[in-house]
Amino acid sequence: MRRASPVPAVVLKSKPLLGTETPGAPAQRFQSFDLLATLVAVVQSDGAVLFANAALEDALGISRRSIVGSHFPDSFTEPAHLMTALQGAGSNEFAALRYDAWLLRAAREPLPVHVIVTLTEAHEIIIELLPLEQQARQDREERLAEQAQANKELIRNLAHEIKNPLGGIRGAAQLLELEMDSPELTEYTQVIIHEADRLQSLVDRLLAPHRRPHVVGDVNIHEVCERVRSLILAEFPKGLTVVRDYDTSIPEFRGDHEQLIQALINIAHNAAQALSERIAQGDARLIFRTRVARQTTFGKQRYRLALELHVIDNGPGVPDAIKDRIFYPLVSGRDGGSGLGLTLAQTFVQQHHGLIECDSEPGRTDFKILIPLP
To answer: What is the pTM of this model?
Structure first.
């Protein structure tokens, strides 16, 4: 698996730490590490821990007081690897070293992490641990962003290339129809005109997000959810239950109300159509869940607060064949589907500096919309 570049190691220029701190007490100048989601430890070359941030404390499941002063290599399934890295750092063999390892945790399974070992100018060693799950997510987000940009360029170029000859085909068919006396032959020209109009409509839908101006105003996400909920229940009045699970403390934010309604209805409508068999059985379930994510990172940026809007269904799940391509234009898992709904939804959400993620397995599909909050 190709990994995204981990968060750069932090190098601090400061006076030497050794022997200046009270044993078991956090070093004051490292307190800023507590703001990071990355697991961070500051150690001596012999592996003794000088400082551990809050994220590492949570991950290990033991108090910071117990971590400080301990032999940090013993926190790994293979301590020798870290000791080798510390010895290399202590002898200035490298500026930074990276490798994968397993972090031992109290009463829990070991955590796979990517380890970054960095020597500072003060001769302290900073160890960053990135959970590989987090790294995989960063990799996935990077692919989504690259994919969205590629989609945008492809759609624009393709749409313009299609529109010009399409207009000529339709016009020629209309002129040809005027010259024909046989009703049987005019049926063929009508087919040409009808199909040209259908393609024109498809092109217009592809270009819609790039043509319509971004109208910004105050958005209450629960008003958006309620609007979409009423539209879905109007189309699927029987056999489908739409559950509200709202965090009413979520503040309003600046955004395009109509674009967010369209993005959410595209996702919810896809889910409802995937639930057709369960709707027939009467046990289809769709959940709208809102939560606040704190100190979260997505789109290569860190946000203090972000909206998490989940659309969860109990359908068959996204087919494996298209799981990695569901946000591509014209990719659909349903016969007769245009394959534009999720593409447009992703585009609208990205215009709000957010993104949409999908986690799917048979019996549960979760589309998560992430948007920064003020």
So the answer is: 0.55
Tens-digit pLDDT profile for residues 78-92? 999 999 888 888 777
How confident is residue 31, by pLDDT bands cut at 50, 70 and 90? confident
Residue 92 CB neighbours (<10 A): 9
Strand 253-255 and strand 301-313: pairing? unpaired
Q: How far apart are CA 194 and CA 199, in angstroms?
A: 9
Asked if residue 82 lies in contact with residue 73, where contact means CB atoms within 8 angstroms, the answer is: yes
- Using DSSP's 3-state secondary structure scheme, residue 98 falls into strand
Task: State both tokens at 33.
Answer: 């590490």
Question: Which H helix or E strand runs over 115?
Answer: strand 108-119
**Helix spans in the chain (H):** 54-60, 64-67, 79-90, 132-178, 183-211, 221-235, 257-274, 276-281, 341-350
Confidence category of residue 71, pLDDT binned at 50, 70, 90: very high
Indicate if the pLDDT at residue 337 is higher than 70. Answer: no
The pairing of strands 240-245 and 284-298 is parallel
As a whole number of angstroms, the distance between CA 144 and CA 156 comes to 18
- DSSP per-residue string spanning 266-314: HHHHHHHHHTHHHHHHT-EEEEEEEEEEEEEEETTEEEEEEEEEEEEE-
Which residues, 6 or more positions from 162, have their beta carbon under 8 angstroms from its beta carbon? 199, 203
Residue whose pair of structure tokens reads 């313009």 in the numeric block: 160
Shortest CA distance to 301 belongs to which of 208, 371, 222? Answer: 371
3-state SS assignment for residue 368: strand
Encoding tokens for residue 313? Answer: 């269904």
Residues 6+ apart with CB under 8 A from 202: 338, 340
Per residue in 258-280, pLDDT tens? 889 989 999 999 899 889 899 99
The predicted model gives 336-340 an average pLDDT of 61
